[in-house]
Write a structure and sequence with these properties.
Blueprint (H helix, E strand, L loop, with lengths): L6 E4 L3 H12 L5 E4 L16 H4 L1 E4 L2 E6 L5 H6 L3 E4 L3 H8 L3 E4 L16 E5 L4 E2 L5 E3 L9 E2 L2 E2 L14 E3 L4 E4 L7 E2 L4 E7 L2 E6 L4 E6 L4 E3 L4 E6 L11 H18 L9
Parallel strand pairs: 1-2, 1-6, 2-5, 4-5, 6-7, 7-9
Antiparallel strand pairs: 3-4, 8-11, 9-10, 12-19, 13-15, 13-18, 14-17, 15-16, 17-19
Length: about 270
C-alpha cells in the first residue's frame, strides 16, 4: 500500500473503536478520532474515548492517546498510536485535511454533516441521507448491519422495543451521574447503581436486571435525559472487555468499503 490516507472518525465510542481497530489492522495508520471533552460511552473498557480521562487507552492491543492539539498527530502515528482529539472539530479538520470522514457517533440527535468535509464522507446509522448529508450511509440496524446506501436514509433503531433494551439503564432527566460501582461488578435486580444529581435533588438509579455491569458511565459525567448510564449482561461468556458483534461487523464493513473506494470501485463512483 502507498502512504495511508488520513481518515477522520467522529466519535470514539464502541462502534468508532471497532472501526478504528479494523482499519488499523488493515494498514491504515493515519487515523484520527474526534471526541467530546466529557465522553458518554458506557462500555468504556472497549472504547478509545477512555483515553480522554486516562491519557492513553488500549483496546485489543492497540493504543490510543489523548491529544489537545492536532499538530501532535504525526508523532502519535509514528509511535503506532491512534490520536483522540478533544479540541474543536474545525481545528482538527483544518490540521488533518482528511481524505475520508466517518460519522460514527450514532447519536440520537445527529450533528451537522456535509459532503464537503472530505472526498468520501460516510455516515453510520439513521439521521443522515446518502447523497445529501454524506456520500454514503451505512446501516447499523442489527438485521442489516453494514449494508451501504447510495441514496436514502438508514432504518430507525429498535429503541425500547429491542430485546436488548431491558439491559440498559437510562437517565430519566438531565443531570450528572454519580456512582461507586465499577465495571464488572455483579448486581441483583433493583440494587443501587448510582444516582442522578439534578440541582438539589438526587434521583436514585437501580439495576434493571441481575447480572454484570458491562457498561457504566464514569462518576461525575453529565448526561442528558434518555442517555444510557449503565448496561448489564447476564451471559457467562461476556465481560467488560468483550467488543460487541455489531462493532466488529461495522469495523469489517467500513474497512471493506474504504478499500473498495480507494481502488476506484465503480459502485462508489459518486463524485
Amino acid at each position: 500500500m502507498t502512504q495511508s490516507p488520513p481518515i477522520f472518525i467522529r466519535g470514539a465510542g464502541e462502534m468508532a473503536t471497532g472501526i478504528a481497530l479494523h482499519l488499523a489492522a488493515a494498514g491504515f495508520d493515519r487515523l484520527v478520532l474526534q471526541e467530546c471533552p466529557h465522553p458518554t460511552a458506557i462500555r468504556r473498557a472497549v472504547c478509545f474515548s477512555e483515553a480522554v480521562a486516562a491519557g492513553r487507552w488500549q483496546v485489543r492491543g492497540k493504543n490510543a492517546r489523548h491529544l489537545n492539539v492536532p499538530e501532535e498527530c504525526p508523532s502519535c502515528w509514528e509511535e503506532g498510536e491512534i490520536p483522540v482529539l478533544t479540541c474543536a472539530e474545525e481545528t482538527s479538520l483544518r490540521a488533518v485535511c482528511p481524505t475520508i470522514f466517518i460519522e460514527a457517533t450514532l447519536r440520537k440527535r445527529p450533528v451537522p454533516l456535509g459532503k464537503h468535509l472530505a472526498s468520501l464522507v460516510l455516515a453510520l446509522g439513521p439521521g443522515f441521507t446518502a447523497g445529501q448529508d454524506a456520500h454514503l450511509v451505512m446501516e447499523t440496524h442489527p438485521a442489516h448491519c453494514g449494508e451501504i446506501l447510495v441514496c436514502g436514509a438508514a432504518r430507525p433503531p429498535e429503541g425500547e422495543h429491542s430485546p436488548a433494551a431491558v439491559r440498559h439503564l437510562r437517565a430519566p432527566v438531565d443531570g450528572r451521574f454519580h456512582t461507586e460501582c465499577r465495571l464488572g461488578d455483579h448486581l441483583e435486580v433493583g440494587s443501587p447503581v448510582g444516582f442522578l444529581q439534578t440541582g438539589k435533588d438526587a434521583i436514585p438509579l437501580y439495576a434493571p436486571m441481575s447480572g454484570m455491569l458491562r457498561g457504566l458511565l464514569r462518576d461525575g459525567t453529565p448526561v442528558r435525559q434518555g442517555g444510557k448510564v449503565a448496561d448489564m449482561d447476564d451471559r457467562p461468556h461476556i465481560t467488560p472487555q468483550t467488543l460487541s458483534s455489531r462493532a466488529t461487523a461495522l469495523g469489517q464493513a467500513v474497512t471493506r468499503l474504504v478499500r473498495q473506494w480507494l481502488q476506484g470501485d465503480d459502485t462508489y463512483a459518486f463524485i
